[in-house]
């Protein structure tokens, strides 16, 4: 049975770039956009054109540059925002306007000092106006995670009728539990008239560390687009991480879902974004962290040396990492020491290894990590006879 393709909507250059301390210039944005296009991303959210002249120019330049992906610009449900976004996107091969408004009671009361009916009117007016510029209009119901499902379904039904092609259901505050978010998507699929004309999209934030789990719950329940960023960067604790959702779908064939992403470019893309944004990737980050394929305890090292699959569920080559690493520490055993010693040029007999191992432990107890140079030094300064 062929797999359903989940569209990957990358918002590194919009939600991702809002991160404090990170500022990309236009050239850097263009290089990232080009890379996202070769990575196989389906939609690139290039920015929020009305927010500043610089952002407008970046979106315009990205729209001219990108060859394959849809290029998208964010707007509020405001006429001028929509006009400016349409202008910035006018050279895109496939343009999309992403417009929307807050739908939770908290947003309606505190942000808009409004009421539910008036919010629906504004949402419909924004979508209808955006449709006069482009065919592809995505609607976001900001804070949908905390919006009651019945009202959310009313909003969705009204904007689909007005021509929205994609319904973005953001868990803006990262509040939902996976079961709750999945149930929300299922409820919309079952209760919004005309839903077959639109794609449901997951846009999850990571305030409780659940962005990836929530997005996966969303696609299991019928959403067919995930909004995400490289390395999971984004407002506060970040957005859903692109590399995580892509590899979850790839590693679980039973889900019958896949993406068009060339996973072999993931590691390199992560490095590129982290360097350009000056945002370090935490070492234990899934898929692309420096330790994602590093083994440091003796039991694990012994297993991986015998067969990689004992402790690795992903072949590192599939995400563009050359090889798993065996990191030597005071927790490492003889198997790991012999393995690395062989790589640096010493084939040790069992007796030699026993001797070197004692020296290694003394060294490792002082040093946090024993590098290849250190192994060389330990072997050469230990009194073993290397000829025997
Ligand atoms: O998190 C959010 O709700 C957003 C919308 C503007 C799409 O980023
Ligand atoms: Zn967001």
From TrEMBL:
What's one GO MF term for it? 2-isopropylmalate synthase activity
Q: Which InterPro entries match?
A: 2-IPM_HCS-like, AIPM/Hcit_synth_CS, Aldolase_TIM, LeuA/HCS_post-cat, PYR_CT
A Pfam family matched by this chain, by name?
HMGL-like
Q: Which Gene3D superfamilies match?
A: 1.10.238.260, Aldolase class I (3.20.20.70)
Q: Where is the Pyruvate carboxyltransferase domain?
A: 6-267
Q: What is its EC number?
A: 2.3.3.13
User: Part of which pathway?
Assistant: Amino-acid biosynthesis; L-leucine biosynthesis; L-leucine from 3-methyl-2-oxobutanoate: step 1/4
Which UniProt keywords are listed? Amino-acid biosynthesis, Branched-chain amino acid biosynthesis, Leucine biosynthesis, Manganese, Transferase
* Single GO BP term: L-leucine biosynthetic process
Q: Which NCBIfam families match?
A: PRK00915.1-3
Q: Which family does it belong to?
A: Belongs to the alpha-IPM synthase/homocitrate synthase family. LeuA type 1 subfamily.
Q: What is this protein called?
A: 2-isopropylmalate synthase
> Which source organism does the UniProt entry give?
Maribacter litoralis
Taxon lineage = Bacteria, Pseudomonadati, Bacteroidota, Flavobacteriia, Flavobacteriales
């Amino acid at each position: 049975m062929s797999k359903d393709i989940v569209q990957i909507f990358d918002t590194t250059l919009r939600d991702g770039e809002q991160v404090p301390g990170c500022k990309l210039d236009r050239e850097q944005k263009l290089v990232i956009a080009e890379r996202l296009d070769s990575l196989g991303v389906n939609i690139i959210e290039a920015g929020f054109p009305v927010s500043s002249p610089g952002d407008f120019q970046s979106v315009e330049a990205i729209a001219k540059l990108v060859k394959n992906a849809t290029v998208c610009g964010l707007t509020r449900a405001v006429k001028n925002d929509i006009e400016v976004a349409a202008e910035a996107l006018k050279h895109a091969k496939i343009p999309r306007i992403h417009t929307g408004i807050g739908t939770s009671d908290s947003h309606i009361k505190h942000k808009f000092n409004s009421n539910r009916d008036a919010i629906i009117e504004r949402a419909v007016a924004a979508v209808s106006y955006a449709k006069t510029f482009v065919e592809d209009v995505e609607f976001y119901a900001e804070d949908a995670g905390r919006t009651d499902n019945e009202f959310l379904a009313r909003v969705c039904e009204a904007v689909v009728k007005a021509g929205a092609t994609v319904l973005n259901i953001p868990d803006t505050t990262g509040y939902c539990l996976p079961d709750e978010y999945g149930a929300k998507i299922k409820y919309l699929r079952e209760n919004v008239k005309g839903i077959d004309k639109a794609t449901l999209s997951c846009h999850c934030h990571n305030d409780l560390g659940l962005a990836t789990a929530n997005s996966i719950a969303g696609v299991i329940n019928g959403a067919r687009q995930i909004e995400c960023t490289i390395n999971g960067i984004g407002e506060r604790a970040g957005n859903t991480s692109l590399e995580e959702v892509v590899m979850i779908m790839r590693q679980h064939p039973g889900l019958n879902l896949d993406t068009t992403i060339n996973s072999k470019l993931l590691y390199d893309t992560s490095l590129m974004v982290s360097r350009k944004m000056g945002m370090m990737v935490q070492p234990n980050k899934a898929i692309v962290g420096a330790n994602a394929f590093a083994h440091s305890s003796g039991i694990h090292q012994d297993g991986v040396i015998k067969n990689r699959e004992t402790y690795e569920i992903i072949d590192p080559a599939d995400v563009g990492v050359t090889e798993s690493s065996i990191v030597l520490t005071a927790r490492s055993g003889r198997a790991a020491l012999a393995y690395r010693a062989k790589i640096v040029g010493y084939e040790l007999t069992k007796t030699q290894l026993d001797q070197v191992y004692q020296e290694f432990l003394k060294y490792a107890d002082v040093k946090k990590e024993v590098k290849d140079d250190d192994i060389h030094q330990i072997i050469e300064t230990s009194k073993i006879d290397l000829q025997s």
